[in-house]
């Protein structure tokens, strides 16, 4: 026996009102309460939300890996404007450079997916997982912005020159 409004467990409540949200119910009338336990979000929804939220870090990782592969292929750090990713004679660098660009294009849809998961978890009143997805997303975007700003390996400069 659970509250329709907030899924509060009403089984041990003597009054006819939910102590959590005030919604009235009648233990004798099955139409006034829910039999379903507090709604749980499927695990894959949370997993999807976390991956989508962390996507900017995946994108940053593809930038760094591409730059390291180019470094190995060239024998020195790839220089912006001088070592074009397309002119490096390495299939691996070519594939990685494409993956980096696809990952970056996917950042916006990934952010939308993460926000949808946050809204969905919020609708289920699962505040903690919702806050977790939101925090991971903010941290990942902050990390991505910092990489673009400071770019220690000059990988952003080089990939997008
Ligand atoms: Zn309630």
Overview of the molecule:
It is a single chain. With 161 residues, the chain is mainly alpha-helical. The protein has two domains: 1-38, no CATH class; 43-159. 57% of the residues lie in helices and 0% in strands. The chain is built from six helices and no strands. It has helices at 43-53, 55-74, 91-105, 107-123, 127-150, 155-159. α1 (43-53) packs antiparallel against α4, α1 runs parallel beside α5 (127-150) and α2 runs parallel beside α5. The protein starts with 42 loop residues before the first helix and ends with a helix. The chain binds zinc ion. Zinc ion binds next to loops.
Which distinct ligands sit in these coordinates?
zinc ion
Number of helices: 6
Can you tell me the number of structural domains? 2
Helix percentage range: 55-70%
Structural class by secondary-structure content: mainly alpha
Overall, the morphology is: rod-shaped
| Low-pLDDT windows of residues | none
Q: What kind of sheet is the major sheet? A: none
Order of helices and strands: HHHHHH
Radius of gyration of CA atoms, rounded to a whole number: 24 Å
Averaged pLDDT: 89
Strand residue content: under 5%
Span from first to last CA? Answer: 62 Å
Q: Total number of β-strand segments?
A: 0
């Amino acid at each position: 026996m659970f509250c329709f409004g907030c899924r509060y467990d009403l089984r041990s409540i003597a009054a006819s009102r939910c102590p959590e949200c005030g919604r009235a119910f009648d233990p004798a009338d099955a139409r006034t309460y829910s039999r379903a336990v507090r709604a749980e979000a499927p695990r894959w929804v949370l997993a999807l939300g976390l991956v989508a939220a962390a996507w900017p870090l995946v994108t940053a990782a593809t930038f760094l890996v591409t730059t390291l592969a180019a470094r190995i292929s060239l024998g020195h750090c790839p220089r912006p404007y001088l070592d074009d990713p397309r002119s490096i004679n390495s299939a691996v660098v070519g594939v990685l450079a494409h993956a980096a660009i696809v990952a970056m294009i996917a950042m916006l849809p990934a952010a939308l997916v993460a926000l949808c998961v946050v809204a969905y978890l919020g609708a289920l009143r699962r505040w903690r997982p919702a806050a977790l997805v939101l925090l991971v997303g903010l941290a990942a975007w902050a990390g991505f912005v910092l990489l673009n700003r400071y770019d220690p390996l000059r990988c952003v400069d080089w990939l997008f020159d």
